[in-house]
Amino acid sequence: MGANTDAMILGAGPAGVALARLLAARGWSVAVIAARRADAWEGLSPRVVVGLQRAGCAAAVGAAGDAAPRRAGWNGRISALNHEHLVDRARFDDALREDARAAGVRVIEATVGALRRGDRGGWTAFDAHGAPLATARFLVEARGRRAPATGLTEACGPRTVAVARVFRGPPVPAASAAASFADGWAWMAAAPDGRRLAQIVVDAASVPTRNRLSAFHATQLVRAPEAVDWLADATAEGEASARDATAVLRGGLVGADWLRVGDAAFTSDPLSGHGVHSAIGSAFAAVAALTSLREDPDALPLVRRFVEERSAELFDHAAAVGRAFYRMEERWSDRPFWAARAAWPDDAADAPAPVAHGRRRQPVVVDDRVVEREVLVTPRLPRGVLTIEGVELAPLLRLAADQTAEDQTTPDWTTLARRVGHPPAPVGAALLWLRQNGFLSGGGLPTG
Known about the structure:
Blueprint: E1 5-10, H1 14-25, E2 30-34, E3 41-44, H2 46-54, H3 58-64, E4 68-74, E5 77-88, H4 89-102, E6 106-109, E7 112-117, E8 123-127, E9 132-141, E10 153-156, E11 160-168, E12 175-181, E13 184-190, E14 195-203, H5 213-221, H6 225-230, E15 235-244, E16 248-250, E17 254-255, E18 258-260, E19 266-267, H7 275-295, H8 300-328, H9 336-342, H10 347-350, E20 358-366, E21 369-377, E22 387-388, E23 391-392, H11 393-407, H12 413-420, H13 424-436
Parallel strand pairs: 1-2, 1-9, 2-6, 4-12, 9-18
Antiparallel strand pairs: 3-5, 4-5, 7-8, 8-9, 10-16, 11-14, 11-15, 12-13, 13-14, 16-19, 17-18, 20-21, 22-23
C-alpha cells in the first residue's frame, strides 16, 4: 500500500496527471486514485495541448488529435473562430492514465469513500467498503467539480448548468460551433464517425428534474437556428445529462500537508475558455507549493498566500473574459440569463486599484520553491515581473541606478553583467525592458 508514498492525488484529469508526472520527475513517489467518469466530450484549446506537452503527457496529446475548426453564431453574426481539439473524455482519460503509469506513478482505479489523517501525520484513503487504498504524506485534491466542497466560498457567479445530449448523423469532418439563444447558449461538436454533441448552457433555476431533461434540452435547442442546422440530419442517442457549470472560487486551498488544484480550487464559466488551461497551470504551481512545504513546514503562510492570490487572480481574469463575451450578445440583454452574466462580476467590485510604477514584495516561484521576492509593477503589468531572460529585475535596477548616479552616464551593461553574474546578452535584454517600461530613462536614471 505504500506508507512511504510522498503524494496521493485524488483524480486523474489533466491537473492531477500533470502534477503526478511533474512530481515523479523530481523523485517523488506518487499514487493517483481515480474513478471512471461518465462519457463526455470536451473542447480543448491549443494552449491546453501545449501545457500537456510541457508536462510530458505524450499519450494525452496524441488522444487530443488535430485541432478542428470552430465557428460562432453570436449577436446575429456568424464568424469563424480559431480551432479546438475535440476529445472523447473516456479515451482521453485512458491516455492520461497511460501517461501517469509511464512516469512510474501508481494508478489506482477506485472511488474514494473516506479519508483519514494519521495521528502522526500522513493521509490514508479508503474505498467505499472501508478497505485502504493508499497512504501518503501529502494529499492533493484534484477531482474537479466532483471534489467535496471546503465549506468556504470566496466568490460565486450566477448558478449555471450545462445540459448535453449525443446525436448520430452521417459522417462529417470534425468541427465545433457555439451559438446563442434567448435563454442561454449552445456548444456543438461533430466527430468524423457521425457522432454529434449538443450542449446547452442555461441558468440553473430553469433546469427541470432528470426525467424531464431530454425534453427540456430539445425545446431549448430549437431556439438556436445554428443548432437546428447542425443537427438537421441527426437523431438523438440516449438521454440528456446535466452538470454544474457555475464559476466558483473556493476558500481553504492549502494546508500543511494538503492542497487543492484545478477545478477543485476554482472553476470558470465555460464561456471564458480558461478551465482546463488554468487547471494544468495549477499543476505546475503546485509543484513549488508542495516542494516548499516538504522542505520547510514553516513556509505554509507564504505558500498559502501564493496559492490563494494566484487562484484569485486567475479566477477574476476568467470571470472578466466571460463577462465580455456575454456582453457581446446584445439581442437579449434584458433576458435574465444574459443580464445576470453581463453584470457579473460587478464593474465596481472588480475594478483594480490604480497601479503606479514601483516595487512590491510577493511570493513567486524560483527553482521549484515558493519564495518572497521583489517584483516590478507597472499599470500594464499589475501582477509584477520578477525576471527577464532569467535576470532578476529589481536587483539589476538598483545596480543600474547606483552606476548611473556615480558616472552620470548610461549604465554599462557589460559591467552590470559581471556584477549580477549573468551573460551580457540577457542582461542587455533586461535593461532594455527596464528602459521600455519606464524604470530607466534614456540616460539610465530610474523614473519610477
